[in-house]
Every structure is written in structure tokens, then in C-alpha cells.
UniProtKB/TrEMBL annotation:
PROSITE patterns: CADHERIN_1, CADHERIN_2
PANTHER family: CADHERIN-23, CADHERIN-7
Species annotation: Hucho hucho (huchen)
UniProt name for this protein: Cadherin 7
Keyword vocabulary terms for this entry: Calcium, Cell adhesion, Cell membrane, Glycoprotein, Membrane, Metal-binding, Repeat, Signal, Transmembrane, Transmembrane helix
Superkingdom: Eukaryota
């Protein structure tokens, strides 16, 4: 470029590194200022200075010169701006500019400076201030760097050739717009022949098909990035890429043995573990999960589930074992992968089978009742010692020991029953009462004669049958009220009865008045034929002053065989009632006598009243005699 400067010549020096016979040469360009149309107007281009200069002398950058300068020392050159004192210096007499420090383009790519020529004596500018740029020229002094390394990546095993694994990227701090210092290419240093890398994009791909995780599951690659387009003399950097082959379901389950044998006691409780079997699978995780099933012999007796932690098949007892019935089982067990990948079904079946023989060992078992629950009935009037029923138990073992029976007295605390130790016959030991206890639940024990530790349990439910041994009585204690104004034929009470007995066809009660009162003139009884009866007045005109309480005997008969009866007394109180028939006051009537009677008169009146009470069977009669206090005190 041509620099134009009025009445001046500017010399620019650019250091270039050229490989000439293996040495360094200095190349200097001399550029003249071309006078512009406007006088004293400076038009500048850029100065260039090479970065990383390591010479002992300051680096010459360029020269300023004004045509006002006649060489007599009257003109002084002044430099200001970025680094004008710390990095760049100017000879105020000659205008020569030097760089005193090593420059790094990656730290700062250019510097903006101002130049001015002034009169040395007056410091008055002889040229206007003008701005120029010193640009730091790049050299290849930075190697490529992988900022995201080291890398971790995964690819499914058995992947096809050319499957993308991961992309790596390196950066170069050199100037990408100048030369090839920042142009990077990629190559693989370690990891062949399994993987390759695209030299331009850094994309890593599989270089072999069908790599098997079960053979080798991890690879460590070393990737290089080199600048100068990979040419000799370029700088390089490396990173590692750890590639893990992820699992696919490409291996079927296999039992390590084709036959298993296990021994179990016939007393093994239901839901207990009988045995464990395991099919091995070279895959991992969900691809190695198993499902087991029993194919032959024993699906009803045994069940098999998968232990999710160990992937074992757990054989569990579902029903009780009996050596005497069946002493061995031959199971056929199948193991199948739970998650099958359709892409690999062509490799074969993803299941396997094995045989499991379970041998049942005999144990000494307690006696077993032929009927675990025996139901018996007995009448509550059965005599003591009568036989009710019989229980039976046997020894299930081949020894067939003799059995002795007994009653668990915790279930028969009052000892109502006995059991014959040899025959198992149950009989009554005490009189029974159905109304006290209608059902007895007994636990019967059966013990081997030669081994008392072997005890079996059975149960007997004895129901006591009812007999008619309880008479009927009033259902409740009645309180019957009779209004003084009651009319003849009025129902004053409806009664019912209860009976502790429970006849099979239900209760039927009959009501009547005993012959001794059947002809009374006050009340009658009407049997309603529904286990109730109504008490009805035969007359009106009842007066409390005449009689306050009537006692009416009632005869109640049940329908038992033989029938039982009882006589119950109904109390009827005479009451003063309102117009609606609601009782206002019942019982005794208060008599008021005038005050001032003599003591003798009072005694005579009381005697008459007592006589009247005796005749009319009154319970109580109150006399209200107002007395003056002085009368009482005088007598």
C-alpha cells in the first residue's frame, strides 16, 4: 500500500521471516508519501510487525518524516496511544519507531497510535495529529487444543460398519484468516482398526462391523488434531476418547447344568423355598432379565418366581407334601429372556430348559383326624354319661402307631364332657342347660402312644337341643294407668310374653284370667292370637277416692310339650286425666279437713279412715289437716 503524506517521506520496515539458506533475513520496504490534494493532511495505512520477535535489539517498526523537517533539529516527533510508552518508542529527532517488547497476536492483534510533528521550541504542531494502526502479524505458535476432552462415548455392540460414535473438536488460537496456522485436520493415533475419524469433521465412526461387548467392552482411542493442514512443521494436540460398547440382547440364557436334584422334608411348610436354579446370560441389565416357568410335573404343588436381584428361579412349595402319597417330583423348568430384541431372533431361541428332581423325605407326623371338624347334638335333659358321638384319628406314617384321645380342657373349663382315651367316644359328664350355653366348641387331642410329642388336633362342635323347661312370663314390667273417666270396653293395656326356650316352630302363647278373677266386674282379657293380649275395662266410673290401685292376675301358657304356664300380676293405677285421656295425677287422694277440730275428733276420723282402708284394700290415703301453730303447742 502507498502512504500519502504532504511534503514528507515515510519509511516503513516490515520484518519477515523467510527461510533462505536456513537463516533469517530482514526485508525492508521503502514507501514514499504521496502528496494529497489537501496540504498537511496525513492518510495512513497499517504498519505490520511480526509477533514473538526474540532478538536482542528493539524491533524496527517504521519511520515518520515531515517535509517541514529540514534536518536542523527544529522539528520534534511525538507518539501517543496504545503502548506508546510501554511497547513502542519513537526517536523524536529522526521519527524512527521501534517495538521494545515481544508481541503476542493472541493477546492483542493490533495497536492504535497517534503521530504528530511539533516545533521543538514552542511545541506548536507543524503537522496535524493523525492516527495509524500497528498490526501484529501472526505466526504459527499455538497448537490445536481439545477443550472438551477427554471424551466418553458409547455405541451399541454389533453395530454396522460406519456407525457414528462421537464428534471431537479442536480449536487453534492462531489467526484463521492468515495462512494455514489455524487449519486443523484430525487423525487417529490409537484405536485402529476398530474405529476411524473423519479428518475434516472429527466424527469418529466404527471401522469394524459386529463388535462384541462380551469379547471386549471398552476401547480407548487417541485422536490427534494438527494445524497447517497436517503438513510437516505443523503443531498438534491430542485427546483420549473412551468408547464403551453398550449391551444388546444377542445372547440367549443357558442353564449350566441339565439336571438338578434336591431333597425336602415332607413337613416343609407351604410357601417355603424348595430350591433355586439359575440360567446364565452373558448380557447385562434388562437384556439378562429372566422369566421362569414349570413345564412338567408339579405345577399345582410347586410354583417358580424370579428373584429380581439375582435373576434366579426360586421354586416355592404351594401345597403340603405327603411322603406316603408321592415321594418324588420331576420338574421341567424353562428360562426365557424377558426382553427379546427382534433384531437378533435369527440367532436362535432365547430360552433354555433343565430338569429338577425333588425327592420328598419321610418325617414322623402327628396323628390326623379323619374329620377335622365333627358336629354333634345332645338334648339338654340328657343324663350324665350318655354317648354323644365319636372322633377318629390315625397315624399317617408307615408305623401306624396306636392313638390316645383327650380333651383340651381350655375349651371345656367346666368339664361338661369326657372322651374315651382309646375309642374316641365323647359323652356327657355333667347336666347341661341350653339356656346357659347352647353350643360347646371342644378341641380334641390325638396323641401317638409311643411318641407323646406327636399330637394332632381335631374339633368337635356340640349343639345342645332345647326342651321346654322354662314357663313364659311378661315381656316387661308393665305400669298400667286407668283414667277415672274410662268408658266400658276400653283397652287400657296390651301385654306380651317371653320364654327362654326356643321351640323348633317358634313360640305360641295363650293368655287368660285365672278362674278366681274371671268373673270380676272391673276388667276382662282378650287373647289377640298373635302372642299378645289386651286388657279391657268392663265398666266405667272408676274413682281414686274409692280405690287407687287394682291388681289383676294374668295366666300365660306356652305351646311346649308338656306345656308350661305362669301367673303374672298386672298393676292398674287409677288416674285423674284431662279431656284427651292424658293422666295428670295418679295414686292417693289428699283429704283436707278444716282446722280447729279437737284432738278427739281427729283421732275418731283417723280410726274411720283406717277401717275404710282395711275394707277397700287401699294402699295409701293422705290427710291434710291444717293446724295452727298455737294449737300444736298447746296440746
Amino acid at each position: 500500500r502507498v502512504l500519502t503524506f504532504p511534503r514528507c517521506v515515510i519509511f516503513l520496515s516490515l520484518l519477515g521471516l523467510l527461510l533462505v539458506g536456513g537463516g533469517l533475513n530482514e526485508v525492508v520496504w521503502l514507501r514514499k508519501c504521496v502528496e494529497s490534494r489537501h496540504k498537511r493532511s496525513w492518510v495512513w495505512n497499517q504498519f505490520f510487525v511480526l509477533e514473538e520477535y526474540t532478538g536482542e535489539e528493539p524491533l524496527y517498526v517504521g519511520k515518520l518524516h515531515s517535509d517541514v523537517d529540514k534536518g536542523d533539529g527544529k522539528v520534534k516527533y511525538v507518539l501517543s496511544g496504545e503502548g506508546s510508552t510501554s511497547i513502542f518508542t519513537i526517536d523524536e529527532n529522526t521519527g524512527d519507531i521501534h517495538a521494545t517488547k515481544r508481541l503476542d497476536r493472541e493477546e492483542q492483534a493490533y495497536y492504535t497510535l497517534q503521530a504528530q510533528a511539533v516545533d521543538r521550541l514552542t511545541n506548536i504542531p507543524v503537522e496535524p495529529r493523525s492516527e495509524f494502526v500497528v498490526k501484529v502479524q501472526d505466526i504459527n505458535d499455538n497448537e490445536p487444543k481439545f477443550l472438551d476432552g477427554p471424551y466418553m462415548a458409547g455405541v451399541p455392540e454389533m453395530s454396522a460398519l460406519g456407525t457414528t460414535v462421537v464428534q471431537v473438536a479442536a480449536t487453534d488460537a492462531d489467526d484463521p484468516t492468515y495462512g494455514n496456522s489455524a487449519r486443523v485436520v484430525y487423525s487417529i493415533i490409537s484405536g485402529q482398526p476398530y474405529f476411524s475419524v473423519d479428518p475434516k469433521t472429527g466424527v469418529i465412526r466404527t471401522a469394524l462391523p459386529n463388535m462384541d461387548r462380551e469379547v471386549k467392552d471398552q476401547y480407548v482411542l487417541v485422536i490427534q488434531a494438527k494445524d497447517m493442514v497436517g503438513q510437516m512443521g505443523g503443531l498438534s494436540g491430542t485427546t483420549s476418547v473412551t468408547v464403551t460398547l453398550t449391551d444388546v440382547n444377542d445372547n440367549p440364557p443357558r442353564f449350566s447344568r441339565k439336571n438338578y436334584q434336591y431333597m425336602v422334608l415332607e413337613s416343609l411348610p407351604v410357601a417355603s423355598v424348595v430350591a433355586r436354579v439359575k440360567a446364565l446370560d452373558n448380557d447385562i441389565g434388562p437384556n439378562a432379565e429372566m422369566e421362569y416357568r414349570i413345564m412338567e410335573d408339579g405345577p399345582g404343588v410347586f410354583n417358580i418366581t424370579t428373584d429380581e436381584d439375582t435373576q434366579e428361579g426360586v421354586i416355592i412349595l404351594q401345597k403340603p407334601l405327603d411322603f406316603e402319597t408321592k415321594n418324588s417330583f420331576n420338574l421341567r423348568i424353562e428360562a426365557t429372556n424377558r426382553n427379546i430384541d427382534p433384531a437378533f431372533v435369527h440367532l436362535g431361541s432365547f430360552s433354555d430348559t433343565t430338569s429338577v428332581k425333588v425327592t420328598v423325605e419321610d418325617v414322623n407326623e402327628p396323628p390326623v383326624f379323619s374329620t377335622q371338624l365333627s358336629k354333634m347334638v345332645v338334648s339338654e335333659d340328657a343324663r350324665v354319661g350318655i354317648s354323644i358321638g365319636r372322633v377318629s384319628a390315625h397315624d399317617p406314617d408307615s408305623s401306624n402307631s396306636a392313638i390316645r384321645y383327650s380333651i383340651d380342657r381350655n375349651t371345656d373349663l367346666e368339664r361338661f364332657f369326657n372322651v374315651d382315651a382309646l375309642s374316641g367316644v365323647i359323652s356327657t359328664a355333667k347336666p347341661l342347660d341350653r339356656e346357659v350355653n347352647s353350643v360347646h366348641n371342644l378341641t380334641i387331642l390325638a396323641m401317638e402312644s409311643h411318641d407323646p410329642t406327636q399330637v394332632g388336633k381335631g374339633f368337635a362342635v356340640i349343639t345342645v337341643l332345647d326342651i321346654n323347661d322354662n314357663p313364659p312370663v311378661f315381656a316387661i314390667e308393665y305400669e298400667t294407668l286407668l283414667c277415672e273417666n274410662a268408658a266400658p270396653g276400653q283397652v287400657i293395656q296390651t301385654i306380651s310374653a317371653v320364654d327362654k326356650d326356643e321351640p323348633p316352630s317358634g313360640h305360641r302363647f295363650y293368655f287368660a284370667l285365672p278362674p278366681s278373677v274371671a268373673g270380676n266386674s272391673n276388667f276382662t282379657l282378650r287373647d289377640n292370637k298373635d302372642n299378645t293380649a289386651s286388657i279391657v275395662t268392663k265398666r266405667g266410673g272408676f274413682r281414686r277416692r274409692e280405690q287407687v290401685l287394682y291388681r289383676l292376675p294374668v295366666l300365660i301358657v306356652d305351646s311346649g310339650s308338656p306345656a308350661l304356664s305362669s301367673t303374672n300380676t298386672l298393676s292398674v293405677s287409677v288416674c285423674d286425666c284431662d279431656s284427651d285421656g292424658v293422666a295428670q295425677s295418679c295414686g292417693a287422694v289428699a283429704y283436707t279437713l278444716p282446722a280447729g277440730l279437737s284432738t278427739g275428733a281427729l283421732v275418731a276420723i283417723l280410726g274411720c279412715i283406717i277401717t275404710l282402708l282395711g275394707k277397700n284394700n287401699h294402699d295409701l290415703l293422705l290427710l291434710m289437716i291444717p293446724l295452727r301453730l298455737n294449737q300444736l303447742s298447746n296440746k
